[in-house]
Every structure is written in structure tokens, then in C-alpha cells.
Design brief:
Helix content: 40-55%
Number of strands: 15
Distance between the termini: 69 Å
Number of helices: 19
Structural class: alpha/beta
Strand content: 15-25%
CATH architecture of the largest domain: 3-Layer(aba) Sandwich
């Protein structure tokens, strides 16, 4: 009996330890929809249900992802197809899962640049990172059309889309899910050169770990893989909800909700297609084709065991990739010309180094000015709240999300009662102080994902995201009461507000919802002020 109790105790202790296993995941970039499956698996409790306590670390500039596992800074990390090169160089790498069957990486140009084909890129400026492994698909695509490094002017990548818009570069290494969305929002027409369309189809965002970790933690690795797959499936089946989660909790880049939704829609097409309906699949034949490209480019000089490279539980899909005669010819040409590319790159980097230092300083100044101009465009200079222009854009976003996904929201329209008297009696300086204090109070009573706008002299609008009318009533009353109890002008005179509140309706546009809220605000004024009409 005593022995049985010890066995039961040991069993419970073991389960407790396993149920609280700490895992660190290192991302390959900043927080955005690109890593949505991991956020969902964490926030929906898929990892927790598997006994995993996960920490998701955002990419830090200057970080070397190829050594992050060797240095024990993470248990899993996200990499590219270039993990094959690391494997060939003797690194302990096992690919668990690939979020994207087709890499989003491509070359982006503006339509008015008159670059209609790859050959038009000759003697043009192109922004690319200096990582040959990371940009191998783009370099191979260019070389397949007889565009080599000495035919183009490679600029250091600033990751600033305005450089493409303003003509400081002719083409930019970009992501289908990122820069294209931002250009579309600005109504700027663009052209995409995607390596996939030229036969260079690479995986991207590959979840990987080491064989030693798997050997020491076989069940944990399997549980982590299955929870991750579940997270990605949910993310792509619920893009609107997932985008809202990222917008609220993982939005370090301050992307708009609409941008995150579009990013999710584009990435879904790269993760699942007509040939592959299983999230995360890795295929030996496709990987071998990528190996062949790397070898021709001189980035690999030996084969690797692809069966060891792919995690044993990965849901593999078999393809029959065979090189055509045209592809054999392309790779032969690449092999001949790319030996000289490495030499040219070394010389190029040396010559450009001093120029780049000056350019970096200039870019920092430009970014600072751009941020300042953007703030002046969208922020009310007196109160610090968003202005009417910002409201016009944000209401379009919310109406678009409502029509596409049924994501409801409410509009809270209010103004200060008898504000003209405050200005007439005490002067505009006191009136300005009342407006400034009001904004501070309102911001303290609303959520981070609600939006406050000053749309007129003493008129304000709050967009309550993902909020239906019944819940919005409580918020509106709370705002009204807080203002009444905390905002005064001179001589402690109480300042009050009147509110019109409405929920979005099926056929609403920007004018109809604004007019309805305005009429409700007028009703509050007629009924004695300092009240909410809905």
C-alpha cells in the first residue's frame, strides 16, 4: 500500500511537470499576421491544453536566427528554405512545419515605372537585403532572365515603402502580404515579380528545432506540432477574429485592422492551394528542387538526407517534381555566371560602405520627418486626439470589415453642452483647456481598441470596435457620468456632454451612420442635454 502511494505521487508529480513545460519560440520577424497561428494556439489555449507554457519572442534586429537554438535562447524558431544550407553545413536542424508552401518574398515595382518585365530591371536600382541565402529565389529569378549583379544597382534595404513610392528605388524586395496592401490603400498601382511564377518555388516560415531536442522531448515536440497545426487552421478559418486579436495584443507595428485582414487573406492563399490542403506540409521532392537551386548558385556543395531534415510526424504530401529541359538549361547558365556574383558582391559591398553610412543617417532623418508629417495629418494639434481625416479613414475600415465578416461596431457622437458660453464668458484659453481635459478623461474610460476623434470644434466621435448596442449603452453612460463628475471650467462650473449612440446597420455607409448618430445627438439636446439617446 505504501509503495502504491509513492507510485501515484510520482505519477502526479511527473504529470504536473509535463503540464507546465516552458517553451520559447523565436519568430523571424516582427509581430503581424505572418505568425498568426502561434498567437491563436496560445490565446485559444491549444498549447495550454497540450501542457505547454509558450513564450513567443519577436525578432530583434541584428539577431542571428541560425544560431539562436545553438545558444539555447529558444527551443523552436522560424526560418526559411535556407535551413537546407545550414543542414548541409553541419548544423543540427529539423524542419517541423512550413506555414507557407509558397514564399511571399518577391520584387515590387510601381506600375508607372515602366518596368513591365524582368529584363526592364537592367541598370535599375533595386533594394535587397545583403543575405544571399535569404534572397536566393529572387537572384535565381533574375539570373534566369540574364539579369546579373553587375546589371543592376543593389541598394541597402531601408524597409521604408516611401522610398519606392518617391522613386528613390525602382524595385524593392517585399512581401505579397505587406507592401502590396499598403500600396493598394494609397491607390498606387504596382507590379509584382514573384519567383514562384518563374519556377523558383520556395517554402517560407519553417518552424524548426534540433534533433537533440526532439530526442530528449519526443512527446512534447509532437504535442507542440499538433497544437501549432490546430492554431494555423483556426487562424485561416477565422481571419477576421484572428486579425482583431493581433490588432489588440500583438500590434507592435501599429498596423490597421484592415491591413491585418488583407494580410491574412493573401497569406492563406500561400499556405493552402489546389494541390495542398494540409497546413504545414513538407515534401522531399520539392525540397530537393530547392537544394538543386542552392547548389547551382554555389550556396551548397553537397547533398543532405532530406528524410532526416523533415520531422517524422509532419503531414507530408508527395509531389513529382522533375526538372524540365528548360530548367536544366537555366540552372546550367546559373552555375556558370553565379561564381562571379560572389566576387562582385564582395567588391560592391566594400565600395558602397562609406556611401551607406551617409545614406543611413539621411534615412533616419527622413523617417523622423515622415512620422512628424503623419502625426500632423491625422492628429488634432490641440487635444492630441485623432482628427476628422483619421475618422474618415477609420470608419471606412470598420464598414468594410462589417460587410465582409459581420464585425459589428457602434458610433458614439457627443459634444459639450453650452460650450459657446464657456468661450464667451471665460475666453478661448479656458475653452481649450476644457477640450484638452475632456480628451484625457475620455481616453481613460475607453479601451485601447476604441477610437476617439475630434470632428468639429466641441464635437467628438468614438468608434467602439466589436461592440453591440447594449454594451455600448453602458460605455456611453459611463463616459457621460465621468465627464459630469470630473470636468469643470472656471469657478468649478460643471461641464456636461450630450450623446447620440447608434449601432452599424446592414446598408450603412459613411454618411448614413454619421447622420443617424448626429440626429440622436440632437434628440439628447432637445430632451434637456446631459443624456444619451440611442
Amino acid at each position: 500500500m505504501y509503495l502504491m502511494r509513492i507510485i501515484i505521487l510520482l505519477f502526479l508529480i511527473t504529470n504536473y511537470i509535463n503540464a507546465n513545460q516552458k517553451i520559447i519560440l523565436q519568430l523571424s520577424w516582427l509581430h503581424q499576421f505572418q505568425s498568426a497561428g502561434y498567437y491563436i494556439a496560445k490565446e485559444k489555449g491549444f498549447y495550454k491544453d497540450a501542457g505547454i507554457d509558450i513564450e513567443i519572442n519577436e525578432f530583434q534586429f541584428g539577431m542571428n536566427l541560425s544560431t539562436v537554438l545553438e545558444e539555447k535562447k529558444a527551443d523552436f524558431a522560424i526560418g526559411r528554405s535556407s535551413l537546407l544550407i545550414d543542414k548541409a553545413n553541419g548544423k543540427d536542424v529539423v524542419a517541423i512545419f512550413s506555414a507557407y508552401q509558397d514564399s511571399p518574398l518577391m520584387l515590387l515595382t510601381k506600375e508607372d515605372s515602366n518596368i513591365k518585365s524582368l529584363k526592364d530591371l537592367k541598370n535599375r536600382n533595386i533594394m535587397l537585403t545583403t543575405d544571399a541565402k535569404g534572397t536566393a529565389s529572387i537572384l535565381a529569378m533574375l539570373s534566369s532572365h540574364q539579369i546579373y549583379l553587375d546589371d543592376i544597382n543593389i541598394q541597402k534595404h531601408t524597409f521604408n515603402l516611401d522610398d519606392l513610392i518617391n522613386g528613390k528605388t525602382d524595385a524593392m524586395g517585399s512581401y505579397l502580404s505587406n507592401e502590396t496592401v499598403r500600396l493598394s490603400e494609397k491607390n498606387i498601382k504596382y507590379r509584382v515579380f514573384h519567383p514562384k511564377d518563374y519556377g523558383f518555388n520556395f517554402y517560407d516560415d519553417i518552424l524548426f528545432t534540433t534533433s537533440s531536442f526532439i530526442k530528449q522531448n519526443p512527446e512534447l515536440t509532437k504535442d507542440f506540432y499538433e497544437a501549432t497545426v490546430k492554431g494555423w487552421e483556426y487562424a485561416f478559418n477565422n481571419i477576421g477574429e484572428t486579425a482583431q486579436l493581433i490588432f489588440t495584443k500583438y500590434n507592435t507595428q501599429n498596423k490597421s485592422l484592415f491591413q491585418l485582414v488583407r494580410e491574412g487573406e493573401i497569406l492563406k492563399e500561400l499556405a493552402i492551394n489546389e494541390k495542398i490542403d494540409t497546413i504545414g506540409s513538407l515534401d522531399e521532392n520539392k525540397l530537393q528542387k530547392i537544394v538543386d537551386v542552392y547548389k547551382i548558385m554555389g550556396l551548397m556543395n553537397k547533398d543532405i538526407n532530406l528524410e532526416e531534415f523533415i520531422y517524422e510526424h509532419n503531414n507530408k504530401t508527395v509531389f513529382n517534381f522533375k526538372l524540365t529541359e528548360k530548367e536544366i538549361f537555366i540552372y546550367s547558365v546559373l552555375f556558370i555566371v553565379l561564381i562571379g556574383i560572389a566576387v562582385f558582391t564582395i567588391v560592391y559591398i566594400s565600395i558602397r560602405r562609406k556611401w551607406l553610412i551617409t545614406t543611413d543617417a539621411l534615412q533616419k532623418e527622413i523617417k523622423s520627418k515622415t512620422r512628424q508629417l503623419k502625426r500632423q495629418t491625422y492628429i488634432d494639434s490641440l487635444t492630441g486626439s485623432k482628427n476628422r481625416k483619421a475618422y474618415n479613414e477609420k470608419i471606412k475600415e470598420h464598414l468594410s470589415l462589417y460587410k465582409r465578416y459581420g464585425t459589428k461596431f457602434t458610433l458614439l457622437f457627443f459634444d459639450i453642452d453650452d460650450f459657446k458660453k464657456v468661450n464667451d464668458i471665460y475666453g478661448h484659453k479656458i475653452g481649450d483647456k476644457v477640450l484638452i481635459d475632456l480628451v484625457k478623461i475620455v481616453k481613460s474610460t475607453t479601451r485601447n481598441n476604441d477610437f476617439l476623434f475630434r470632428v468639429g470644434g466641441e464635437e467628438f466621435i468614438i468608434i467602439l470596435s466589436q461592440t453591440q448596442l447594449e454594451s455600448a449603452k453602458v460605455v456611453a453612460e459611463h463616459v457621460r457620468e465621468t465627464i459630469e463628475n470630473n470636468l469643470t471650467s472656471m469657478n468649478k462650473e460643471i461641464v456636461t456632454i450630450s450623446i447620440g449612440l447608434t449601432e452599424v446597420k446592414e446598408n450603412d455607409d459613411e454618411d448614413s451612420i454619421y447622420t443617424r448618430a448626429d440626429m440622436l445627438l440632437y434628440d439628447s439636446k432637445k430632451q434637456g442635454k446631459n443624456r444619451v439617446s440611442y
